[in-house]
Design brief:
By secondary structure, the protein is an alpha+beta fold. The chain has a single domain, classed as Jelly Rolls, CATH 2.60.120.10. It has a 7-stranded mixed β-sheet with strand order 1-2-3-4-10-5-8, with no helix packed on it. It starts with 8 loop residues before the first strand and ends in a 22-residue tail after the last strand.
């Protein structure tokens, strides 16, 4: 089955990283040193040859001194009202899944809603995540296993989870079917807008 509407807008994350790097006058090797990611892995990401894990995205955003949201913007931010048709969502495909923005990438407030569509076995990557603010997730279809610190929560359709996002967390689709889940991030610090794209690309994730 199709994971997304082919008419929706795709964002080239690798191009955005290269664009931000060029704006700051950083060579690929310089950004690799600042982020702790190998130059080879960074080159693969910028050329769209591989999708970075969320751990890698956090390291790159921090090295570029931008919120992670800036890696997914394809239009200027600043609207106080955002209406987004389902066919107009910003989307970022990643291995075994899809991230779809629900307007937060254009909204001026400190809230970031998005939807993840996950194939069976999809997960958030090899490392736990932590960021400022709060994280809310609601499972719409399938199954989603969420680990927050040392406790595991198993979400089924209609189940919801809310927690302080500075707690280490990770997730995976443990079921045999596609999972859909709505995420809402809020209360994060200004200039830190932690969109959890939740990629799964272990081969390019840097070691913590």
């Amino acid at each position: 089955m199709e994971l997304y509407d082919k008419e929706a807008r795709s964002v080239d994350v690798g191009f955005k990283i290269r664009e931000l790097r060029d704006e700051r006058g950083l060579s690929m090797r310089a950004l690799a040193r600042k982020s702790g990611i190998s130059a080879n892995a960074l080159s693969m990401i910028e050329r769209g040859r591989t999708s970075p894990s969320v751990s890698t995205l956090y390291k790159l955003a921090d090295a570029l001194d931008v919120p992670i949201t800036d890696l997914f913007r394809d239009e200027p931010e600043g609207s106080t009202v955002v209406f987004r048709k389902s066919t107009e969502r910003t989307r970022v495909p990643f291995p075994r899944g899809l991230w779809e923005g629900l307007g937060g990438e254009q909204f001026i407030g400190r809230v970031e809603p998005f939807m993840l569509t996950l194939e069976s076995g999809a997960n958030s990557g090899p490392f736990s995540m932590e960021h400022s603010g709060h994280e809310f997730v609601m499972c719409l279809r399938g199954q989603l296993e969420y680990q927050v610190e040392n406790k595991v929560y198993k979400l089924e359709p209609g189940d919801a989870l809310l927690f302080a996002a500075q707690l280490k967390h990770r997730w995976r689709n443990t079921g045999n079917t596609v999972t859909n889940a709505i995420f809402v991030l809020s209360g994060f610090e200004e200039r830190e807008v932690p969109v959890e794209v939740h990629y799964n690309a272990d081969e390019v994730a840097s070691k913590e």
